Amino acid sequence: MSSSFQPEKMSFLDSLPFDRLLWLVPFFFMLHNMEEAPFMENWSKRVPLKAHPNISTKQFVIAVTILTLGGFILTFLGVEIWGRPTGYLLILGIQMVLAFNAFVPHIFTTIRFRLYSPGVVSALLFTLPFSFYLFRRALTENLLTWTQFWDLLGLAPFVMVLSALLSLKIGQMFAK
Question: Which of 33, 34, 121, 140 maximizes the CB count within 10 A of its CB?
């Protein structure tokens, strides 16, 4: 045996089949929402953003619970029922929304206001690295084309705003 022989190391993520890897999307989404929830009410009162309404913790927890459950349900449908290509694109679309959300508002508001933005830590530690890995792997394994990637990126801001407004409105109704 040669001393220069080194077995190829495979990362945990590389060892997962792609359909199992997609289950990390709602899991990381849940962690992100758990970071945001306790701090969002105070943050929304401190930051001078007209685009971001003042919200209560109860309202926000209801909203992110709806979104998180929706993420798990859509992942189940996408992986276990619909499969490729439709289901995979749906889940990749969710991850694209999360990746966009990492930049706007989390990283942007943290830099702009020099103030911790709830969710920025999980965005930097989980969302962005996992997004880069997931999209690179999807492209490499021909599960996603560049055209689909750009389409998902173009839709992400609209889906993010629509889902946030809708879930916050539902949260507001139930928080009363």
Answer: 33
